[in-house]
Write a structure and sequence with these properties.
37% of the residues lie in helices and 20% in strands. The longest helix is centred in the last third of the chain and has 15 residues. The protein is globular and about 50 Å long. The chain is an alpha/beta fold. The chain has one domain: Rossmann fold, CATH 3.40.50.300. The structure holds guanosine-5'-monophosphate (5GP). The site of guanosine-5'-monophosphate has 16 residues, from strand 5, strand 6 and helix 4.
Amino acid sequence: MSHSSAQAAGGGEAAGNTKAPLIVVSGPSGVGKSTVVAEVLRKDPRIWLSVSATTRSPRPGEREAVDYFFCDDQRFDALVASNGLLEWARFAGNRYGTPRVAVEEHRDIGRPVLLEIEVQGARQVRQAVGDATLVFLAPPSEEVLKARLTGRGTEDPVAIERRMHAAREELRAASEFDHVLVNTDVSQCAQALLDSVGLSGSAD
Ligand code: 5GP
């Protein structure tokens, strides 16, 4: 696996011994994590979004090293064995993990790093990185979450119920996080996320 080398963004500072923030964004499937994260990055382009390794197959339009590092099982095993992942977890039959070195490199040169990962991975980051800030995105209500999952159009009622069950489990983890934000409005939620980690955003 390779990754582009870290570059300081305009305004980013390599501030002595102080590393830039590590922000972990988590929350149940269907809560709109990727949409909120995209808005956060638009508002504050200094933030670097970590690219995860996964054993999942690429979806149409997904690009290697941009959306994920797509790995076979053997490659993923090697990453785990070499301690190359900051955290990793199984989700829906596949493995996902955060490459460790790129996170550290970006933090070291003053770029805030954001991980968009599921709850088990967030727990591992909590253990491994004392100064990480964990943000949990919650839906406005169960009904809204169900409507969003239904709105994707592909799942049958049984699959939606299964996802809702998983979501209820994940929602129980909210209290373990530093901040819980309700995703009612994407722009407001993105701004609240930046505020909660002490970054004000610069694009608006
Ligand atoms: P998807 O297959 O839809 O891209 O991602 C499935 C889930 O895996 C999402 O909840 C996503 O946030 C999570 N995920 C993506 N990358 C990582 C990672 O590196 N580690 C962990 N623990 N979860 C991840």
